[in-house]
Amino acid sequence: MRRVCDRLIEVFMVDRPDPDEWRKLLAFSQEWRRIRPYFYERCKALAESEDDPRKMGNLYKLSRKLKEVDDEMIRHDELLEEIEVNETEIDVIVAKRRKDFTSDFFKHLRVLCDANHSNLDRREKLAQLAARCLASVEEYDKGAENSVALDAARRKFDDILNSSSLQDACKKIDTLVKNKQFDPTLMLVISKAWAAAKESPLMKEEVKDIMFHLYNVAKGNMQRLVPKEVRILKHLLTIEDPRERLGALAQAFSPGDELEGKDIDLLYTTPNRLYRQVLFILDAYYSNKEKTLIQEAQKLMDPLVISRLEILRDVIKTEFL
């Protein structure tokens, strides 16, 4: 282990002295977790036995700087683990831990994507999570910046909480949706309330259950506000087989009774409407590539997803228009 640590010290100090390079090396390494405690001990031992003050200082500096990078990566990994365990509540995690969704966190995801270059499933999963996190962060920030909308949303939520029963509270949410008065800012307020309730040791379990139920009802209604063309596209992009995707595309253009369920939607649209939606998404991706709130997250838009969108664009144009 000494030889391994000595070689790593040489790499970090001479071959790859840039901290950004350290992040890549640590992310790509399969052994770093095992090596970690020995490495810092070896740095300390070499520094204490060094007669040259400059070399001693460099060893202490390396140990300190690398540990800062290492600890930061551990924090990012812990956040990523929380996101993966609670994928359906990313907005809740953002509401609770917005300050942790930094550009450095998205850079970390980028490094992990590169480290998983041979594992396409894992790479795609990370890219999708990054895109979902970015969308949630942007919604959170937009809602937080608009004080008028935030005050209005809080009043609506207070009215929901003052309902005579849980059933009545759910009806109020349904009415807000029906009247187009349910917006992302209200979803933000509800998400923050559930995040606070979930973490509070003082809140009764019955109250937590009510808050969780209201959150799920609100989230379900929020999803229904997403244009059906976007929902159809999301489904199409999950289909890997091109022939199966073509069949699903043809089905989406075959009018029939629409069904909006908890787990399955049967939605229909026209080739023109879906084609315009694909063009809009691709145009937004390419034109805003360097203008997003967190540029590193935008870089993580999975090339596979973009490729499938481009294929859908061409198929719709060739086969259905």
How would you characterize the largest beta sheet? 2 strands, antiparallel
> Which structural category do the helix and sheet elements fall into?
mainly alpha
- How many extended strands? 2
Number of domains: 3
Show unreliable segments. 289-294
Oligomer: single chain
Question: How is the topology of this model organized?
Answer:
Blueprint (H helix, E strand, L loop, with lengths): L1 H14 L3 H10 L3 H17 L4 H33 L4 H8 L5 H13 L4 H26 L1 H15 L4 H13 L5 H16 L5 H20 L3 H10 L4 H11 L6 E2 L4 E2 L4 H17 L7 H5 L3 H18 L1
Helix pairs in contact: 1-3, 2-4, 2-6, 3-4, 5-7, 5-10, 6-7, 7-10, 8-10, 9-11, 10-11, 12-14, 14-16
Features:
single chain, flat, 3 domains, 321 residues
Characterize the structure shown:
With 321 residues, the protein is mainly α. It folds into 3 domains: 1-82, no CATH class; 146-224; 228-320, no CATH class. Helix content is 77%, strand content 1%. It has 16 helices and 2 strands. A two-stranded antiparallel ribbon has the order 1-2. The longest helix is centred in the first third of the chain and has 33 residues, at 53-85. The protein is flat, with a radius of gyration of 25 Å. Residues 289-294 have low confidence and may be disordered.
